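Title: Prediction job returns without error message
Component: structure pipeline
Severity: low
Priority: P3
Assignee: unassigned

Description:
Job completed but the reporter wants confirmation the result is attached to the right record. Sequence as submitted:
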Amino acid sequence: MGGIAGGRRWEIGMPLLIVGAVIAGLTVGVRGAGELFWIGAGVAAVGAAVFFSAPRRP
């Protein structure tokens, strides 16, 4: 019963991946936005981990 089902990977992982990548992309060249870049990169990493995680089989 544990883990994220296949449908949940799309519902949770994909938006996190997109939002994190957009935040990181928009702040990559902005002076003083290094912390915001790393927050966006972290959100994207969590989203990618959830999205690309293999579904568990019973």
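Comment from assignee: result matches the submitted record. The helical segments are 6-27, 34-51.
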